[in-house]
């Protein structure tokens, strides 16, 4: 496991409030995108609440896509490297990124992490964002696609209550399908809510424990 990536003093977290932080982030995100494209790396930002199944989804995707792509992952968390270790079990390089108190990754941290991997050695990069359905929406990272994972255990209103993150998503994964009956949650309603907010979004239902639906996620990502 590589060293944890953290922001230095004076980097984007410390920019004075009168500076347009979002604009600064967007510029760095564009630089990240250019660097990734130049090296032929496709990056996928995985967003969603804590416990929705982001790490489980990445683990299943990595298992399924082994042999087809050379992969790596970045794992954003406040202070721990627990998830990074879970993903690393599957034989891919994982760079842990700690945000301290911040509720989202930003393009600066991703830029720093990009310097730690051999981009020529990979084709596909998964970026697990910090568990949050609000903050990551405003901070593009330079990824090609954005997934939002929403768990059935979060109840029937998770999508309608967080419209902004779904507006910017390419794929919505409705996870923990096995618990739909116990939770009394209508999966079709969650799907319709996402499509109402973002008519172009692809919606896939999964059980990231068993692997059910993972092939549909791979198809939705056109991988
Ligand atoms: N029953 C069930 N549990 C799941 C499923 N996907 C993930 N989990 C469990 O939910 C918990 C949180 O998952 P995790 O992937 O760590 O969520 P994250 O915080 O979004 O990364 C773990 O205990 C997983 O084993 C699922 O489809 N069904
Ligand atoms: Mg996780």
Summary?
The protein has 223 residues and is α/β, with parallel strands linked by helices. The protein has helices at residues 21-38, 54-65, 82-88, 107-114, 163-167, 180-183, 187-197, 214-220; strands spanning 42-48, 71-77, 93-98, 124-128, 145-151, 171-175, 202-205. The chain has 8 helices and 7 strands, in the order αβαβαβαββαβααβα.
How does this model look, in words?
This protein is an alpha/beta fold. Helix content is 32%, strand content 18%. It has one domain: Rossmann fold (3-Layer(aba) Sandwich). It has 8 helices and 7 strands. The chain has a 7-stranded parallel beta sheet, sandwiched between helices. Strand 2 (71-77), helix 3 and strand 3 form a beta-alpha-beta unit. It starts with 20 loop residues before the first helix and ends with a helix. Guanosine-5'-diphosphate binds at residues 48, 50-56, 83, 131, 175-176, 178-179, 207-209.
Key features of this structure:
223 residues; alpha/beta; Rossmann fold; seven-stranded parallel beta sheet; 32% helix; 18% strand; binds guanosine-5'-diphosphate; binds magnesium ion
| CATH architecture label name | 3-Layer(aba) Sandwich
Oligomeric form: single chain
Shape: globular
CATH topology: Rossmann fold
Bound molecules: guanosine-5'-diphosphate, magnesium ion
Largest beta sheet: strand ordering? 3-2-4-1-5-6-7
Question: Largest sheet, if any?
Answer: 7 strands, parallel
Mean pLDDT: 92
Specify the structural class: alpha/beta
Identify low-pLDDT runs.
none
End-to-end span in angstroms?
26 Å
Proportion of beta-strand residues:
15-25%
Number of domains: 1
**Helix-strand pattern:** HEHEHEHEEHEHHEH
Our count of helices gives 8
Query: CATH H level: which superfamily?
Result: P-loop containing nucleotide triphosphate hydrolases
- What is the class in the CATH system? Alpha Beta
Radius of gyration using CA atoms only: 17 Å
**DSSP strand tally:** 7
Helix content: 25-40%
């Amino acid at each position: 496991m590589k060293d944890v990536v953290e922001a230095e003093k004076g980097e984007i977290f410390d920019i004075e409030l009168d500076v347009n932080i979002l604009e600064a982030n967007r510029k760095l995100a564009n630089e990240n995108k250019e660097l990734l494209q130049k090296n032929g790396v496709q990056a996928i930002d995985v967003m969603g609440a804590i416990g929705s199944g982001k790490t489980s989804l990445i683990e299943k995707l990595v298992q399924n896509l082994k042999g087809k792509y050379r992969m790596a992952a970045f794992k954003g968390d406040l202070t721990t490297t627990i998830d990074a270790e879970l993903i690393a079990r599957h034989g891919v390089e994982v760079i842990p990124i700690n945000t301290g108190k911040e509720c989202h990754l930003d393009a600066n941290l991703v830029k720093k992490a990009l310097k730690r991997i051999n981009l020529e050695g990979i084709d596909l990069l998964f970026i697990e964002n910090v568990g949050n359905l609000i903050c990551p929406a405003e901070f593009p990272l330079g990824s090609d696609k954005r997934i939002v994972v929403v768990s059935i255990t979060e109840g029937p209103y998770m999508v309608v209550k967080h419209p902004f993150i779904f507006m910017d998503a390419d794929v919505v994964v409705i996870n923990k399908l096995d618990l739909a009956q116990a939770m009394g949650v209508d999966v079709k309603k969650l799907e319709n809510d996402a499509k109402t907010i973002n008519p172009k979004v692809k919606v896939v239902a999964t059980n990231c424990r068993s692997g059910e639906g993972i092939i549909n996620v791979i198809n939705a990502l056109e991988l």
